[in-house]
Amino acid sequence: MKSRFAPSPTGYLHIGGARTALFAWAWAKKQQGKFVLRIEDTDLERSTQESVDAILQGMDWLGLDYDEGPFYQTDRFDRYKQVIQQLLDEKKAYYCECSKERLQTLRENLIKQGKKAKYDGCCQNKNLNTGVVRFNNPDDGLVVFNDAVKGQISINNKELDDLIIARSDGTPTYNLTVVVDDHDMQIDCVIRGDDHINNTPKQINLYQALGWHSPEFAHLPMILGSDGTRLSKRHGAVSVMAYRDSGFLPEALLNYLARLGWSHGDQEIFSMDEIVKLFELKDINKAPASFNQDKLLWLNQETIKNSSIENLLNNLAWHLQNQAITITDTPNIGAVLQHLQNRCKTLVDMAGEVKIFYQDFNTFDEELARKHFKDKAPLKHLFAKLEALNTWQACSIKQAVKEVCFELNIGFGKVGQPFRLALSGNGNAGSIDIVAELVGKDKALSRLKMAINL
Ligand code: GLU
Predict the structure, then answer these.
(1) Which residue out of 14, 37, 177, 196 has the highest number of ligand 1 atoms within 8 Å of its CB and is therefore the one to mutate?
(2) Atom of ligand 1 nearest to the CA of 191
(3) Residue 41, class by beta-carbon neighbours within 10 Å (0-12 exposed, 13-18 middle, 19+ buried)?
(4) Measuring CA to CA, which of 57, 226, 245, 418 is 20 to 30 A from 425?
């Protein structure tokens, strides 16, 4: 069994495209079938290599591996020409030379009469051999198909235009190429956004004209932004790679995308294996799904918490490099990440916090310093206690902090906050006893000294 993802390279891989890719991928994996990537680049004016690269990069980052492809439609022009010629020879298509002006007037007149704006077949019997090529759509009857998401859909052929399958320069159009490819690539199920649902009856007619069996169709509901309109740039990041940059784990984004329009009971958190195991087209919702950044962030945090250290490190590497942070042998990065995975919502936050364990600093956040370093007595007292410690462990450090509080008769915050700021420079750090242990005695004491001498 085969499915495919067929993006047009006219921009980056966006959230909607990634969800389509995920559903098609999960469907194929579930059937132990094949997943095909096809780049639909026949629109030479709008397709760019940059977009191709961005799509491949997005698929790679998400881990949506394909068994076949990437195929490029621009490599298949000869095949499309052959099919167009076949349709012409069989009188199932014809050349049309109608001018833009004629078509425009025709359109306006039909609309004025309250009729559907469609081509009137003027060139159908002229036996022309230049111009655009139009498919001779049947005039009567119904096109009926069972969409795996939307249910039965039926369209009267009278509603359908004689669609253009080749431009006047001979290049084929989307509805033709998609049919030829899905047939040649033996696609069993076409999973795509419901913005294509109006194309499907036209494509089914083409399959029929060519004597080919049409695949199953599943049209996915739209993704809406928080204000109920179609998700777009206005709603913030829609590019998949922007989520990498903001510190999301690919499996968190995929988990979130899976839940956008698909559900399995009330379950929110899924591993990729579970998505594959549980995925069924029948569980895709008919109604549009709303994109919710807060929920995605929550899922990211949960995924970080449950992730293996190895996976965290693999995904963090890019952020560490980006923030110019070099990891050394001490402290052990595994121990640092184990501490951080319970408190960081994103990998960007995590990289920022990793920094304090490996990188020295020589300034403190000014505003916080004014607040927490006003009274130096707790820090001085703490310094003496910590310096005297024989074992540098979270529990002994915690005990030292407690003793300072007790001996100076002050609350925990009066010691903890200055200590946290001294250790981190910016106050962004978790449990100070653990942070101090990981930072190590020498560094912890020298940072305390720097704070005291400020
Ligand atoms: N290339 C089309 C697009 O990016 C998708 C076509 C399809 O899935 O049939 O919208």
Answers:
(1) 196
(2) 8
(3) buried
(4) 245
Query: pLDDT (tens digit, 0 to 9) for every residue of the chain, 454 residues total?
Result: 999 999 999 999 999 999 999 999 999 999 999 999 999 999 889 999 999 999 999 999 999 999 999 999 999 999 999 999 999 999 999 999 999 999 999 999 999 999 989 999 999 999 999 999 999 999 999 999 999 999 999 999 999 999 999 999 999 999 999 999 999 999 999 999 999 999 999 999 999 999 999 999 999 999 999 888 988 877 877 899 999 999 999 999 999 999 999 999 999 999 999 999 999 999 999 999 999 999 999 999 999 999 999 999 999 999 999 999 999 999 999 999 999 999 999 999 999 999 999 999 999 999 999 999 999 999 999 999 999 999 999 999 999 999 999 999 999 999 999 999 999 999 999 999 999 999 999 999 999 999 999 9
From residue 371, how far is each of 319, 365, 426 by CA, in Å?
A: 31, 10, 12
Q: How far is the CA of 384 from the centre of ligand 1 (A)?
A: 68
In CATH, what class is 360-454?
mainly alpha
* Cα Rg of the chain (Å, integer): 31
Nearest residue to 179 (alpha-carbon basis) of 88, 98, 76: 76
From the options 3.40.50.300, 3.90.800.10, 3.50.30.50, 3.40.630.30, give the CATH code of 79-166. 3.90.800.10
Structure tokens at 58: 């997005």
State pTM to two decimals: 0.93
> Ligand 1 centroid vs 37 CA: distance in angstroms?
11
